[in-house]
Task: structure prediction
Amino acid sequence: MAWKTVIHVHTEHSCDCAMPVARLRDACLRRRVDCIAVTDHDEIEGALRLRDLGGVRVIVGEEVSTRDGHVLGLFIERRIPPDLSAAETCDRIREQGGIVALPHPFAILCPKSLRRRVYSLIPRADAIEIGNALNPFRWQCHRGRLLARSFDLPGFVGGDVHTPWAIDSAFQVMRPFAGPVEFLERLREARFHLGWQPIVSLVVQGYEDARRRIAGLFGRRRAPRKDRSAQSVRGMKGSRVGISPLAFPNAASRMDARRVERSE
Result:
């Protein structure tokens, strides 16, 4: 048995995405996605809502806009605020027993890529995005693969999904896992499928980003959403879907032990 796992997915809770959570779930069911890591920009509400809907296993994540670039936190339960340093952001992810993943580190088309600053975060990193379906320049993905290999970090391919028709433009086929430690172990033996997103996905993403920026200039901002990050967690232990570090009582300590072992 293997899980088709999609990492790095956005919903309408991101500033540059209009995809409703229910439509994302429908796309996962239609394309037979077994597990999905939802990583909205500076928000976890979309991931929590998808987990509540059921039908697909959900890794709660966030693509945090740090002062140094984007950082992904996976297996978290509390929102991490933007505009912190990348180092402090990584530390806050780890405090929750989560995984620090570095997305599109060398993508020149993304103004929030870490680029040279990625090297200073290697001691805090758990995984590196070695392919991104939204990036047309594959030589930059190759640099990510070399980086992961050089520091013996597991890699993953990210869909950077913003539209339902691009849901499985990139995915990994992994053995089932139960929490962050096993997730990293399974990544090392996963089979990767990296494709290209249709051009319409780029157009839709650009339009949505521009529309919301213009609306912000005229004061028409979205109503604040209720923060449920501190509410009780329903993970795999309490329901048939959903993946959460809080569903595994020793997740944080096991991740800390793994990091100490790696540093030695």
